[in-house]
Predict the 3D structure of the following.
Amino acid sequence: MDEPLPEENNSKETPISSFYPCIIGQSQILLDVFDIIERVRNTNTTVLIQGESGTGKELIAQALHYGSERKNGPFVPVNCGAIPGELLESELFGHEKGAFTHAIRTRLGRFELADGGTVFLDEVAEMSPMLQVKLLRVLQEKQFERIGGTKTIVSDFRVIAATNKELEEEVAKGRFREDLYYRLTVIPIKVPCLRDRVADIPLLVDYFIEKFNRSKKKAITGISREAMGYLFHYPWPGNVRELENVVERMVLLSHGECIDCDDLPSRLLKPEHRVEHSGEIPRQGFCLSEQVAEFEKRLIVQAMEQTGWVKNRAAKLLNVNRTTLLEKMKRYGIEKDN
Ligand SMILES: Nc1ncnc2c1ncn2[C@@H]1O[C@H](COP(=O)(O)OP(=O)(O)OP(=O)(O)O)[C@@H](O)[C@H]1O
Ligand SMILES: [Mg+2]
């Protein structure tokens, strides 16, 4: 950790993509995220990455680790949601031989294994209240005991946590400790969902076509404009992961060299995802008010989905009165599961 940093990583000018090229995107909202990564990667500060499932939270955690002076140390991911409470405690802190029935030998925990590196606490909102207390203590003191042990273990690790829940809401509902929340969110990074950065879709599609051409030994050259139109208008609830899976499937099953509409999965072909025009006004013209109404409808549905169909919050997001929002929803026949 005390070694001097390599030139390229020490430079403030180094853009994120030069040392971590696989986070694809150029939308302003993602560039803002790159900017935060750039500024905090070489600090030891705790970072909380929040974003919907499949937005790239783990990629960002890796970028922070491999872009830091800790890059030669271990990157140790722990999925707090996938490991049951009792096991998670021993995963994180380790245990001494005989600490409990099945503890046949001493086992090092992930905090100890991450000495000189980074612990990535994924799905941190799922941690039990008891473990939240223990985590808070570790974050404050950087030392702990293995389960059943008395020796104090000191380990030099950085913590990066991630969640796809609104942690503020979990705190408000009393499910997540407020003091731990503040401790984790020294630097919060909000990863934008894909429907908020549709400008990145063509870049991602090209990147994934290339990737799957290579791994599946295919020679797909691209995607038709019309098919791309559907990708622009689909809401991508599974974000980049879902797009990656869709491209993988299309590369495998495509009938021609170029991906076209009949290669798209049927859920993307629903009429509401169809594009009337591809950003250009057709030669025969179109009805402006219809296009505007269609756009307005889409934005309202998007705002409702983004706010879990809570009308007050959606109205706030769109900067309109609740009554205006209700009127428009009624006019467009917008209902949940519509
Ligand atoms: N900007 C991006 N560029 C390239 N690939 C991306 C990007 N964002 C995500 N991916 C890819 O999408 C998939 C999902 O990313 P990742 O696992 O980081 O998401 P996540 O936010 O951690 O999801 P979850 O909440 O479900 O754990 C991975 O295969 C990842 O490589
Ligand atoms: Mg993840």
User: Anything to note?
Assistant: The pocket of adenosine-5'-triphosphate (ligand 1) is lined by residues 22-25, 51, 53-59, 164, 204, 240-241, 244 (CB under 6 Å). The longest strand covers residues 158-163.
